[in-house]
Amino acid sequence: MAPKGPEAESPSPTNGSVRKRTEALSPSSPRKYRSLAEIMRTAKPSPPVTGEYYSDFRCEQCRSGDRDEEMLLCDSCDKGYHIFCLRPIVVRVPSGPWLCPSCAGERTFQRFPLMQTKIVGFFRIQRCSITAEEEKCRPSQDTRKQRRRSMPLIMHKRRRRILPFNPTEDPVRRIEQMGSLATALTTLQMEFSNELTYMPGKAPRSANQAILEKGGMQVLPREDKETLELCRAMYKRGECPPLLVVYDSLEGFTVQADGHLKDMTLIAEYTGDVDYLLNRQHDDCDSIMTLLSATNPSDSLVVCPDKCGNIARFINGINNHNQESKKKQNIKCVRYDVDGECRALLVACRDISCGERLYYDYNGCEQEYPTQHFI
Description:
Distance between the termini: 102 Å
Radius of gyration: 32 Å
Number of helices: 9
Helix content: 10-25%
CATH superfamily of the largest domain: SET domain
Structural class: alpha/beta
Strand content: 15-25%
CATH architecture of the largest domain: Beta Complex
Shape: globular
């Protein structure tokens, strides 16, 4: 009987193929790289970029190459667009990278969950000491009677008082309204704040002095101050004005009435971080609001709702150069002296129907905002 060799010990493959041992790779010589100095010696210099390089760029929307200082070039495809030809309009040239609508694609955003616990946490709704807040803000009956008896017998022109908003009675609908605002805020990576905020490195609260206003600032009457405090107390307990934040492909996020709003109804206070105007002159935020226009420009303050704010951030402006657009205005912005500090309030200037979008004049105080291209 023939002896069994090593080849006989290994079982043969069932498919009839011959199994061979893989040979080890022979060590290869290390790869050599050229030094940077050698590459620079042999590289050909690129032609300098001059103004002629951009002379052939035209706006993809209007096909014009004029006003190149207001034209944006996409960081992906190098196509050009005028900032006023884009929809929504880009008010200022962005300081960072920018993508055109084709490269950026259709804007998508995640809707805020319509859950009561989520809404309560996002807006920091308080459920305690509601009655005490109401009683503090609402004048007593005895005070009203005493005020009526002490009035002199002289006829005066009746002053128009600011009215508190009437929240929607349906709690489910209120959650939908607040959820629409939460969606817009989270899309812009903002937090909700219904107050002016003073952050380190920006203007301190001590800088907000209404006495510094050039020409003086009107003082908010006591009755209107009570209305302001009442509305703030209602917001704290989750009773918001009947408003919805919707997204429009031409205007971006915008606000529309979700119920009837009477003339002189308080819509919102313009809130956000308070900063010096000199620090924000080259800021590309498109929602900066003047808070204090001081005699000394270094004392002027603005409200910047780029990190935090409320629904006032999403109310759009009218085109000051178009009569038809001016007819859309139904909100006015008024700055008041409230306990010695400047506050900016948005108030209805006429009756607003349900479903009507809200607009006000961005240049109500200063003719500096470029609204000539607003739709």
